[in-house]
């Protein structure tokens, strides 16, 4: 679980803890930029070439909320596109489910979200490039932005079809919409350049959280200079936060980002994660259990289905009861997986080969007993 993704180095990593302790001794917050905040911003811009300017906030939700406001301010449009099953935080515009028709605007998915606000959000099917093209053909002059998890991690792990991300880039460019990659989960989790580096797609804006805070509350959003310069005080789009870029979070984030740049870090993490999913899939197959697994970098997905799903609809067809039995059986053996069939999992650098082997062995025993 790894605190739902941030702890790519493992729990209580000594260098991260030490960095936070040292920062705390100097002061918890100053209400002004610090040298550490500037260092972190410069490092993010270096590691993510699509980000010419970056601003720090206190959470992934703040990052995505701010990026959407910025896209609307930049384009002068109101409508946004998101995808069924993708989660971008708990801002009102994003707690929206698909409408009654394929290309109709959405309905609130949470109590307390005004229907008048939800009507500006169009919810489409993840990995469906043709549907996205139809949406732009019908609403292109109204769409401010498209926001997407480039690797979906909040309906279990769903890998993108290459043509889906490429079509998204081309359509946003053609229609003057802002492409936002929500890399809160995938950022520095799937590779050193995040998902955009892995798939070779350059978004207009990107949002980050989790790993960039090293286990402390921190988010970031950034992108093209001409868009980012619309934020106050340079432009008319308001954004602020008392504790944004606070020294403790910045210290943990810097310590983490420096360590994950070590040569071979991602090759080892990817190999370790792949060995886990391959081992689990092989054990299930040997026991005659319908099961699939896949991974992208240090993220993985487990499914009680014949093949790994590629959409929200396919995820919903997985055997959720079998997953629940498997989760509780693994927990009894001392292995804590995400307690929902709709969450991705995370491997950290602290997981040893013995940990991976023990996990596979526990699953094999459960499969043998008939999940």
How would you sum up this structure, described in words?
The protein has 371 residues and is an alpha/beta fold. It folds into two domains: 2-259, Aspartate Aminotransferase, domain 2; 265-369, Aspartate Aminotransferase, domain 1. Helices cover 41% and strands 13% of the residues. It has a seven-stranded mixed β-sheet, sandwiched between helices. A three-stranded antiparallel β-sheet has the order 10-11-12, covered by helices on one side. A two-stranded antiparallel sheet has the order 3-4. Residues 99-104 have low confidence and may be disordered.
How would you describe this structure in keywords?
Aspartate Aminotransferase, domain 2, seven-stranded mixed β-sheet, globular, Aspartate Aminotransferase, domain 1, three-stranded antiparallel β-sheet, alpha/beta, 2 domains, 41% helix, 371 residues
Question: Distance N terminus to C terminus?
Answer: 21 Å
* Overall CATH class of the largest domain: Alpha Beta
Major sheet details = 7 strands, mixed
Approximate strand percentage: 5-15%
User: How many runs of DSSP E, i.e. beta strands?
Assistant: 12
């Amino acid at each position: 679980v790894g605190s739902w993704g941030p702890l790519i180095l493992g729990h209580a990593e000594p260098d991260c803890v030490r960095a936070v302790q040292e920062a705390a001794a100097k002061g918890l917050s100053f209400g002004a930029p610090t040298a550490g905040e500037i260092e972190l911003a410069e490092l993010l811009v270096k590691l993510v070439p699509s980000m010419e300017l970056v601003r720090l906030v206190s959470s992934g939700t703040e990052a995505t909320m701010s990026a959407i406001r910025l896209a609307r301010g930049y384009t002068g449009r109101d409508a946004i596109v998101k995808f069924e099953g993708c989660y971008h935080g708990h801002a009102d515009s994003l707690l929206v489910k698909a409408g009654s028709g394929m290309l109709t605007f959405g309905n609130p998915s949470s109590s307390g979200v005004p229907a008048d606000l939800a009507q500006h959000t169009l919810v489409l099917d993840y990995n469906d490039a043709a549907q996205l093209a139809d949406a732009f053909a019908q609403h292109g002059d109204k769409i401010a932005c498209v926001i997407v998890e480039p690797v979906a991690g909040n309906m279990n792990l769903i890998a993108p079809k290459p043509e889906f991300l490429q079509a998204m880039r081309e359509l946003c460019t053609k229609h003057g919409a802002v492409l936002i990659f929500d890399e809160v989960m995938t950022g520095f989790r799937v590779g050193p350049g995040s998902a955009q580096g892995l798939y070779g797609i350059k978004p207009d804006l990107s949002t980050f959280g989790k790993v960039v805070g090293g286990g402390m509350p921190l988010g970031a959003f950034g992108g093209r200079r001409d868009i980012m310069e619309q934020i106050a005080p340079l432009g008319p789009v308001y954004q602020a936060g008392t504790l944004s870029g606070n020294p403790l979070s910045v210290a943990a984030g810097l310590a983490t980002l420096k360590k994950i740049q070590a040569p071979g870090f991602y090759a080892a993490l990817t190999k370790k994660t792949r060995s886990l999913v391959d081992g689990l899939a092989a054990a299930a197959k040997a026991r005659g259990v319908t099961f699939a697994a896949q991974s992208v970098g240090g993220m993985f997905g487990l499914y009680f289905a014949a093949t790994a799903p590629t959409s929200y609809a396919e995820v919903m067809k997985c055997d959720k009861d079998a997953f629940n039995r498997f989760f509780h059986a693994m927990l009894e053996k001392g292995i804590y997986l995400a307690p929902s069939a709709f969450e991705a999992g995370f491997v950290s650098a602290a997981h040893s080969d013995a940990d991976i082997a023990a996990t596979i062995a526990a699953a094999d025993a459960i499969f043998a007993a008939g999940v």
